[in-house]
Design brief:
The protein is mainly α. α1 packs antiparallel against α2 and α7 packs antiparallel against α8.
Length: 244
């Protein structure tokens, strides 16, 4: 664009110079000089404005490219954070599943003997492991149904507590929040001394909020704050109740 402007200026100056003799008969020298000076000033002003417009256009293009680069960078950061969150959630779930398995191996067999004679311990273990495997595989709907079936088939099992907890987790992940709230509530009521009871109540609150059950949310927050005041979930519940 600058080369074009330079050519235009040169052409106009040349035209002014050529036309000077022809004008000499009509104007005196002073008036001719004024005309030439005015034409030069106009050409110079035009050139400046064109040059400014060109620079502004280039600056705008550079700004657009910079914004595009920033957007691409932010998208990349979001993808990294999302992947990290999903990975952390999976590690947490794997940790608790592994902990359940270890604790189950350390439990005394006296509770198992309390089961009716018709219950096959091997079958009970197999059914629980199958539900757990579905959960670890991310088949949440299938896992939720398997845990519910296990609870109905083995109501007095030593694995009933984790079956309720992981069943609630599976239902929440499958977006069956009614089922999740029910199982988390039963877990907290049936095993209040379990270290996961506060987390279960907190998860119940989350599901009830999705269901817009405001009364249920408040009642669960009050229970959480009263029964587990020193837990992280209990402290959060107390803060939320103060804001309501």
């Amino acid at each position: 664009m600058r080369r074009g402007l330079a050519s235009l200026v040169a052409a106009l100056l040349l035209a002014a110079a050529v036309s000077l003799p022809a004008r000499a008969g009509l104007f005196d020298d002073d008036e001719a000089r004024k005309q030439i000076a005015q034409q030069r000033a106009e050409i110079t002003d035009l050139a400046k404005r064109a040059d400014t417009a060109s620079r502004n256009q280039m600056d705008f293009a550079n700004q657009v490219e910079a914004i595009k680069a920033d957007i691409a960078k932010l998208r990349g950061q979001i993808e990294v954070l999302t992947y990290g969150l999903e990975a952390a959630q999976k590690r947490q779930m794997d940790f608790y599943v592994d902990l359940d398995n270890r604790l189950r191996k350390l439990e005394p067999t006296a509770e198992a003997k309390a089961e009716p004679a018709k219950v096959d311990p091997a079958l009970e273990t197999r059914d629980y492991e199958a539900a757990l495997a579905s959960l670890k595989a991310g088949k949440f709907k299938e896992a939720g149904a398997a845990f519910v079936a296990f609870i109905k088939a083995y109501p007095t099992s030593s694995l009933a507590a984790p079956a309720h907890y992981w069943g609630g987790y599976a239902h929440a992940q499958a977006r069956d929040h009614a089922g999740a709230a029910d199982l988390f509530g039963k877990f907290a009521a049936g095993w209040p001394k379990d270290e996961r009871a506060p987390a279960a109540l907190e998860s119940r609150v989350a599901s009830l909020e999705v269901l817009k059950d405001l009364k249920g949310v408040r009642a669960t927050l009050e229970l959480l704050a009263e029964k587990y005041p020193n837990s992280e979930a209990g402290k959060k519940a107390k803060l939320r109740l103060k804001k309501k």
